[in-house]
């Protein structure tokens, strides 16, 4: 909303998800690390992991009184899991939590944001097995987020 965001919408949402204890920072080397923009692979990367990706959002017009442009940031949350049932339950729990955001505060690199609301664009999608593997399931869900800078 209004002034452009200092941090990316994906970074803001990842910080919120980690702060709520739904995923962990990759450096913690714990179960369910959450990455921003890409989901790495390799010997040092957990199979059970997630990524938040920023995608095209939408403009909702502007407020006539102030001229402020209302934007809804596009977010995709993707999850990789070695177990279909556990992966599906994990992404559903995260989607359920994001569905309930209502004016939640998030701080990223000393910049404060208010997550005004987050709306799910559709149901959780099961994408099948990750390409080139026979044991890693992929899930995805999209959101539109209204995020406001609080401090600049």
Strand content: 35-45%
Contiguous uncertain segments of 5+ residues = none
CATH class: Alpha Beta
- Just name the CATH architecture: 2-Layer Sandwich
Order of helices and strands: HEEEHEEEE
Structural class: alpha+beta
Tell me about the largest β-sheet. 7 strands, mixed
Overall pLDDT score: 89
Please estimate the helix content. 10-25%
Summed up, the domain count is 1
Q: What does this protein structure show overall?
A:
The chain is an alpha+beta fold and 152 residues long. It has a single domain (9-149), classed as 2-Layer Sandwich (STM4215-like), CATH 3.30.2000. Helices cover 18% and strands 43% of the residues. Strands 1, 2, 3, 4, 5, 6 and 7 form a seven-stranded mixed sheet that branches. The chain is globular, with a radius of gyration of 16 Å. The protein starts with 8 loop residues before the first helix and ends with a strand.
